[in-house]
Please model this.
Amino acid sequence: MKPFSRALLPLACVALLGSAHAQTAPEGASPWSVAVGPVHLAFSTKADLYAGGPVPGAGVHASSDNVLGVEIGYHFTPHWMARLDLANPVRSNLTGTGNLAPLGQLTQAKVGPAILTMNYTPGMWGPIRPYIGGGMVYMKVFSASSNALQNVKVDNAFGGAFLVGADWPLRDGYSLALSVQKLYLKTNATGTVPAMGGAPVTASVRLDPLVSFLSLRKQF
Model:
């Protein structure tokens, strides 16, 4: 069983145990909530590379990763909620494709995403409370290293975020939450290629990850 699948089992068990007593948060509950659970990031990469000029037929693939996520929520009204999603550092290997395939792994990057969204819910639809929203994402690059490249640098980046999800209320202010976010991120990377005599290389890389977040939420 994959690590991400194993992480889902405890949350699923909580949902089954609480479903018989499902209810919304108690009256007078705090507008603040916190959610914790596993996050899966699947990148959809596209890159334009330059080495003195455009490099045709060259591309980059970024590997996916599973991390632990935390979400802090604040209800402005019963229908509007702001969410701040954070996660422990994400590790991704950027591998060359096409004409860059012979270089293998170009960069291993460790990044920290922060996603701020405003969300709208129409209210309960049967046993769930769906929501939709949008906002912005900031990607902090903590480190980047490579065997194929030298002097590697990957820029921090801002981008947009689109979100859909649903809460399944349990009891005592707890709920099971599932959200899927599409992030739109573009960053620039630079380095030199020893195999090409130290030639400088720059890349404009779109990462655009799809982020799946299953969590247990507590409204205080």
The two ends are 34 Å apart (CA to CA). DSSP finds one helix and 13 strands in the chain. Residues 1-26 have pLDDT under 50 and may be disordered.
